Every structure is written in structure tokens, then in C-alpha cells.
Amino acid sequence: LKHMKFIDPNFSLDMFLKEARLYIVPEIIESYLRGDREELKMWTNEATYSVLTAGWDEQLAQGLVSDSRVLDIRGLDFVTAKLINDEIPVLVLSMQTQEIILFRNRATREIVFGKEDHIDNAAYVMAFTIEKENEYPVTGGWRVVEMVKTQARMF
After folding, report:
1. Are strands 69-84 and 142-154 parallel, antiparallel or unpaired?
2. Of residues 45, 44, 46, 17, the one with CA closest to residue 28
């Protein structure tokens, strides 16, 4: 955590966790589920962005658009703080979501994949860093350097 304070002398883990719960994590998960490239690009580094959007061009080529959405985010917890390559400080958070995964035909808006009343439980782990020179002021300098999603179970 001292490395975070070196980058941002005003850094507070409690304040970051509050901001993560109320704003950062919902923005990231919603942009990921909706397929919002511009929003997701603001919050992720290039490598993470490439991994998360890998299948999106194929979906568009098939005429599909995401109508997925997050219903609830719970259990947002601080897991650890560590250094990547002995120089990049990261904070690792975990959380659970309830979400609806739904894809529609772009032209007809008919559902092609998923159901409107089918709720998935998922778990996410995100590693955040803060960048002094971040080109997107809306992020407050925070950037996801890794994000993993696993499906827990479906209702």
C-alpha cells in the first residue's frame, strides 16, 4: 500500500473501496456486459482490453448485440496488494454479481442467446493500479490491469 501512497499521497484504501463499490466496479462490469468498447477502454490497460473484447468482433459479424446487464454486485472485498514486476503496485478485489446474459439480433431485436428471466451468478477478480498520467479523468487514474470472471451457478 505504501507504493500507492508514493503515486498518490492522498491514497486511502477505505476511500478506494468505497469508490470501487459505488462507482468503479459497476462501471467496469456494466461496460463489459453491454459490450461498450469506449467505456471499457477507459478503465482497462491495452492487454486486458484485448482479452476482454476478443470475441466481440465475431458477435458483431453475426449480427448480435449485447443486451446483457448486471442486476446486483455484492461481496466486494479487498484480497491483497502486490507489486507486478517489482514496480507496478496493484490492489486485487473480488466480488460476486447477479447478471443477465442476453444477445439480440441487431436488426430484429429478437433474442438469439439467453433469456430475459435467466439470472446468472458470477464471480469476478480485478487487479487495479493507479496511473499519474491517465488520459481519462473520469477514472480518477484507476486502471484494471487484469480481470477474471467465473460463472458460479444459474437460477
Report:
1. unpaired
2. 44
Which amino acid belongs to residue 79? Answer: V
What pLDDT sits at residue 107?
Answer: 95
Q: Where are the alpha helices (DSSP H) in the chain?
A: 2-7, 13-19, 25-34, 37-43, 46-52, 56-61
The secondary structure of 84-114 as a DSSP string is ETTTEEEEEEEEEEEEE--EEETTT--EEES
Q: What is the mean pLDDT of residues 4-26?
A: 90
- Residue 112 confidence class, pLDDT cut points 50, 70, 90: very high
Average pLDDT (80-90) is 87
